[in-house]
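Annotated sample (chain length 212).
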Amino acid sequence: MPRMRKIVATKTKNVMVSLSNHCEQGQRALLQQAQDENLFLFTFRLLPFPSLKAFCFLLLAFCSSCSLNPNMQRHGQAALQGEWQQDTSAIQQKLVTSSSYHIRFDCDSFFVQINNISKVNYGADTCMRSGHWSEYIKGNYAQKNDTLYLKGLFCNPDFSFKENTDCFRTGLYKEFFRITQKDSIIQLSGTSSVIPIQLHLIKRTSCTPKPL
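Output written by the structure step:
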């Protein structure tokens, strides 16, 4: 029995040292690691109650001093950092309904404002506001070769989460574009429109990753 107690004490000490040395990795991951090694089950079965109580107290003390590292933005594409405004083409001006995009790329995040204009008379429709309305989207993007992937959520004008409403789109936004770039002009050819989105740079920024 003394030998068994010594083994238990050694394993318990190893767990506490591991928790202390890796606190910054997040208490959830550490507890999962301890469970995987069956150390908690081993200790629960072999330690008498007073020692078990002391062990749990020490474990709680170590874990309470841990804090999860915040998720951080990634750097994204350096060439895209900044604010971009769509150039309205002559073709769009002739359409019954047209849209113009304002896109901001911040590290690996994007923020989109889509301004819509319709020549159709919607009458008393409170959503369309006499044929002028905007939609807002934020999320993350990734570029692979000449394809730009956007995935995010429809938002309120301040880019806060948008609850389900009867006006316009809500929920998940997912789109990909073929992207070409030359100096301060980028062109996005998407799947939802046959007319490419051509944007010019109006403000250049640099990426400073921030907590999400």
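Annotation: Strands lie at 82-86, 97-106, 109-118, 132-144, 147-155, 172-182, 185-190, 197-204.
Annotation: Residues 93 and 117 are 10 Å apart (CA to CA).
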